[in-house]
Design brief:
Distance between the termini: 19 Å
Order of helices and strands: EHEEEEEEE
Largest sheet: 6 strands, antiparallel
CATH architecture: 2-Layer Sandwich
Helix content: under 10%
Strand content: over 45%
Number of helices: 1
Structural class: mainly beta
Radius of gyration: 15 Å
Number of strands: 8
């Protein structure tokens, strides 16, 4: 197990930067270990919703968790406004870094390989898990 660490600058699209981080690192399977910072706007897909929730900031990133691989991310993020009111959902493009986003990904590629593939049962690209060198 190893770690990939980055800081994203103001104005960056958080999801796009995470996708590029995974590609640049060569990571085949990973998990979000830590993600802290702030956003000027958050775009989230809420549970069961078909439309994007756009939340204007300033917003603090209060939580983030998920799996990452070259074929896609599945990251949930929680943000809180200046009153401490929190909302969360699926991270979408359009989440714009306000001051910083400090990211630590855990690289699980030595033992695992993740892929996102269409799942007829859910209608989404879902995680396919395989052990490296073994059938999973």
């Amino acid at each position: 197990m190893s770690f990939v660490v980055r800081r994203f600058l103001p104005g960056s699209d958080l999801k796009r930067q995470l996708e590029q981080m995974v590609l640049d690192s060569g990571m085949q399977a990973g998990a979000v270990l830590s993600l802290v910072g702030s956003l000027s706007v958050a775009c989230l897909r809420l549970s069961g919703a078909l439309t994007t929730a756009r939340i204007e900031g300033p917003l603090e990133i209060v939580s983030a968790t998920g799996t990452v691989c070259p074929s896609g991310l599945h990251v949930h993020i929680g943000v809180a406004d200046d009153s401490g009111i929190a909302r969360g959902g699926h991270l979408l493009p359009g989440c714009i870094v306000r001051t910083t986003a400090e990211v630590v990904l855990c690289d699980l590629s030595l033992e695992w390989r993740f892929e996102r593939a269409d799942d007829e049962a859910t209608g989404y690209k879902e995680l396919v898990i395989a052990r490296q060198g073994k059938d999973g």
